[in-house]
Amino acid sequence: MSTERTSDTTKHDRWHVSSKNARHGRRVAKRDFPLPNENRGAIPTRAQVETTVLEGPRADLVPLRFIFGARILGISLDDKLAEGNSPETSRLLATRARLIVTMAERQALARNWLDVIACARAPYAPLSPSVPIVRNRVIEAQDQIESLADALMAPLPTVRGVAMASSLLSDGAGPIYNRACPVDLGSAIGEVIARLDPLNA
Q1: What confidence tens digit (pLDDT) does each residue in 26-78 have?
Q2: pTM
Q3: CA 160 to CA 52: how far, in whole Å?
Q4: Angle in degrees, 0-180, between the axes of helices 142-152 and 185-196, rounded to the nearest 10
């Protein structure tokens, strides 16, 4: 066999192995859980398939049923955390608490708050499917909302503060959506910002 053919065969072998590894990597990347280092290459057990990892200093495997429950019941769980209920009182609350303080969740929440400003300043659309907001209140509280979005990106916000930000934003009877609500939006946001600071916890 010539040197040229040997070189081509070697390149083909390397491409085949690389392609096979890439396909395997993509399949693994689609999973919501990482296999422990010592078990890589082994067939995952049922327990491994039903668990995933949450971010944070105490990141570990969490059963997916709690992840799903924490998302489906998100609003009610956030309300409980916002009221000061300890995450340790239930597994669902604990999972929700760890979920909402991840960077991805806080970024999404901050964007949602900034979107409220954009909605308040957008031309009025009577046929819009969006929930109507009290525009003048939002515009008056724009500075506080922007400060809240910044505070949500702080390195170590409190669970209760993040939950309060989520609860206030989703409260249909609150000052953002209900003109009859007597709560001052700027003051409410200021309270949330203060609660986000771990020094005030």
Answers
A1: 333 333 333 233 333 333 333 332 333 345 444 466 778 778 777 888 789 99
A2: 0.68
A3: 24
A4: 20
Residues listed for the chain: 201
* Residue in the block written with tokens 């009859």: 180
For the purposes of burial, counting CB atoms within 10 Å of the CB of 14, is it exposed (0-12), middle (13-18) or buried (19 or more)? Answer: exposed
Q: What is the pLDDT of residues 98-127, one digit of tens each?
A: 999 999 999 999 999 999 999 999 987 776
Distance, CA of 124 to CA of 132 (rounded, Å):
10
Tokens of 181: 């609500």
Query: For the segment 163-175, what is each residue's pLDDT rounded down to a tens digit?
Result: 999 999 999 999 9
